[in-house]
Amino acid sequence: MTDFDTVDYFTDQSLIPDPYPYLEYLRGKCPVTHLPHHGVVAVTGHEEVMEVYRDKDTFSSCNSVTGPFPGLPVTPEGDDISALIEQYRDQLPMSEYVVTQDLPTHADHRALVMRVFSPKRVRENEAFMWRLADKQIDEFVGRGELEVLQDYAKPFTALVIADLLGVPEEDRADFRKVLATSHSAAEVGDDVRVHDPLAFLAGQFTSYVEDRRREPRDDVLTELATATYPDGTTPDVDVVVKMATFLFGAGQDTTARLISSTLRILAEHPDVQELLRNDRHRIPDFIEEALRFESPVKCGFRMARVNTSLAGVDIPAGATIALFVSAANRDPGRFEAPTEFHPDRPTAREHVAFGRGIHSCPGGPLARVEAQVTLERFFDRTIDIKISEIAHGPADARRYEFTPSYTGRGLQALHLEFTPFPE
Q: Is the pLDDT of residue 188 over 50?
């Protein structure tokens, strides 16, 4: 049995299949707890996680993806290490991306990101999703079975992001192939050797942006290439490329995990599946509860800029703050019976699966639509959805493998069986 007092959360693989008992143990000790390894302070309470998200002056996002690895190259000293963070920021993984940036740089770059998610563009993208969902389902519906991630979720989410960013039709098959064998943004924290896991996309987007700046067209890539900062200035090509590649990598990975978890829950709970089939209006609430119950992100990070305290616990400048989203989403102080799944939970939307504050995930609304479109079309084209007992075992002895990540939470594979709806 794992000793929760001494276990190293970042390396102990026994915590991968079911991290929740460990997280409950930490929260039971205190919602803010110093861990025995890597100088990390674990935050497991919903209120305390929210406080860190809100306090952008005390807590830097410079290490938000990788946490304590590799950390700053020097030992932090003093009451305020803000200057030290800026001195070594570019040596931290993914320092080029908006997810790790602090104000004021973050505000300018996030403004560019939000240009991609304009209401008009999202509406156009949603129309594409409905067609794409059917196209993906067409590939396996006749078999009466599928492996969710490879047969549907990964290609679907990759092509949705490709469409949102305006990737030309003739290039989308290549993007799909490359992404199938590359590092995801969510998993970079588990490989400290990778400074920029999205570099494989940079070359293609650089050519797109440079081409559209030379010869503007009436297309989404031109809008992306010619977007300006709030003050009207034009960002460097590299800035636009980093924005596009991050949206591409992070968006498809997180949403693929959300889709697989929603389908797993439906297949494991036939009563819930029947409820949603008979009343589609319940699907949005179901998705929020799925995000709370099985968040695609287990943990994100911050670095304390100054000596501070949280929930009465002293935190030194330079400490890594581990924001355990999965724990906050099951905090009994916020959610009644948090280990139970309730598709109509009235407080489900208080989850922090997509973060909060200035770094809340800009693609969260898009991910919700992708999940809803998926469930609607699966319901339209199947009579029932069940877990494959050949692959995962009987109901009382399921076998699932989860991605060995300390940041993300997702299945390695999900095999389902279904009866196709007569067409």
A: no
According to DSSP, the residues that pair with 418 across neighbouring strands are: 385
**Which residue carries 């693929």 as its tokens?**
256
In degrees rounded to 5, what are phi and psi of residue 418?
-155, 165
Task: For 237-270, give the DSSP string.
Answer: HHHHHHHHHHHHHHHHHHHHHHHHHHHHHHHH-H
Amino acid letter, residue 12: D
Cβ-contact 176, 139 below 8 angstroms: no
- Give the integer Cα–Cα distance in Å for 207 and 112: 19
Residue 392 structure tokens: 């995962």
Q: How far is CA 290 from the centre of its chain?
A: 14
Which tens digits make up the pLDDT trace of 361-409?
988 999 999 999 999 999 999 999 999 999 999 999 999 999 999 999 9
DSSP codes joined into one string, 378-414 = HHHHEEEEEE-HHHH--TTS----B---SSB--BS--
Check: CB of residue 145 under 8 Å from CB of residue 388.
yes
Tokens of 210: 């440079």
CA–centroid distance for 371 within its chain: 13
C-alpha span between 231 and 236 (Å, rounded): 14
Q: Quick check: 372 and 284 in contact, CB under 8 A?
A: yes
66 touches 301 (CB < 8 A): yes
Indicate the helix (H) or strand (E) that contains 420.
Answer: strand 415-420
What residues contact residue 177 under an 8 Å CB cut-off, 6+ apart?
none
Q: CB of 287 within 8 A of CB of 59?
A: no
pTM above 0.70, yes or no: yes
Angstrom CA distances, 220 to 158, 176, 223, 232, stand at: 17, 19, 5, 19
E-state strands within 275-411: 299-304, 308-310, 313-315, 320-324, 382-387
Question: Which amino acid would we find at residue 253?
Answer: D
Could you give all domains of the chain from N- to C-terminal order, each with its CATH number? 13-420 (1.10.630.10)
- For 373, list phi and psi in degrees, rounded to 5: -60, -45
Strand partners, 320: 40, 303
* Residue 129 in tokens: 């999703």
